[in-house]
Write a structure and sequence with these properties.
The complex is a heterodimer of chains A (82) and B (143). In chain A, 44% of the residues lie in helices and 18% in strands. With 82 residues, chain A is α+β, with helices and mostly antiparallel strands. Chain A has one domain (3-72). A 3-stranded antiparallel beta sheet of chain A has the order 2-1-3. The radius of gyration of chain A is 13 Å and the shape is globular. Chain B is mainly β and 143 residues long. Chain B has one domain: Cathepsin D, subunit A, domain 1 (Beta Barrel), CATH 2.40.70. Chain B contains 3 helices and 10 strands; from the N terminus they run ββββααββββαββ. In chain B, strands 2, 3, 4, 5, 6, 7 and 8 form a 7-stranded mixed beta sheet that branches. In chain B, strands 1-10-9 form a 3-stranded antiparallel beta sheet, with no helix packed on it. In chain B, strand 2 (6-10) and strand 3 form a beta hairpin. Chain B is globular and about 45 Å long. The termini of chain B are close together. The chains are: A alpha+beta (82), B mainly beta (143). Chains A and B meet through helix 1, helix 3 and strand 3 of A and strand 2, strand 3, strand 4 and helix 1 of B.
């Protein structure tokens, strides 16, 4: 893939990331807490408790999971100390 | 050159989060990742979830090098091996990063996020700015 194509897809990935972190409460209200979600163009395209199943759902939609934002929605109050 | 870093609320607090593309030839790996920049970590470590997302096959995983190493991170315990070399593309700036830790199994807890450690800052010759009060963060290079 050309560098410009990578940057285009990367921009889209970053926009989806911004959207996800700004809408965590909304996603929790949709009962997605404790689940993996796949986001494309600011929409949830797959969800589930098992990331492998979410990856398969993304593939079924004709998308390459490597380019798609797949994140775990931590339940409210979860603190991860790194 | 300044590369913006997002300041997002992630798992209990505000963190500096950077999106980048990672590419490796041995093992073959390519994908987009969100990572927490953690100056408390000497090394970069991928999340097992990101490794799964990139669909790295078992055969490719055998191309990781070094001994199996036990690592505790974010309440999880895992075994890692090393990715000899990868290219990270950050907003068009490419850097080579050696010896990234890659989890091969989680023995306790859930997979923590991908962490960019001090090795990443050294490899890119980055200065790292993080103003959590004003939600401003960026990497700065002399390029």
């Amino acid at each position: 893939m050309e560098n410009t194509q990578i940057l285009e897809k990367m921009n889209s990935f970053e926009e989806d990331s911004k959207w996800l972190y700004n809408n965590l409460d909304l996603l929790r209200k949709r009962k997605l807490s404790g689940q993996f979600v796949a986001i494309k163009n600011k929409e949830v395209i797959a969800q589930g408790k098992d990331i492998n199943l979410v990856i398969k759902q993304v593939e079924k939609k004709g998308e390459n999971p490597s380019y798609i934002l797949i994140e775990y929605i931590y339940p409210e109050g979860t603190i991860i100390l790194l | 050159m300044k590369i913006p870093v997002r300041v997002d609320f992630f798992a209990g607090g505000l963190r500096p989060i950077l999106s980048f593309a990672i590419k490796s030839e041995e093992p073959k790996m390519f994908g987009f990742i969100n990572a927490v920049i953690d100056t408390g970590s000497p090394t970069t470590i991928l999340s097992l979830n990101d490794v799964r997302k990139m669909r790295v096959s078992e055969i490719q995983m055998q191309k990781l090098t070094g001994p199996y190493k036990k690592v505790n991170l974010g309440g999880a315990q895992m075994e890692t091996r090393l990715l000899p070399e990868a290219e990270l593309n950050i907003s068009g700036k490419k850097i080579k990063l050696s010896l990234i830790q890659v989890p091969v199994s989680i023995t306790k807890g859930d997979a923590p996020p991908t962490i960019l450690g001090i090795d990443f800052l050294l490899a890119g010759k980055f200065k790292f700015f993080f103003d959590v009060n004003n939600l401003v963060s960026y990497l700065e290079t002399e390029d």
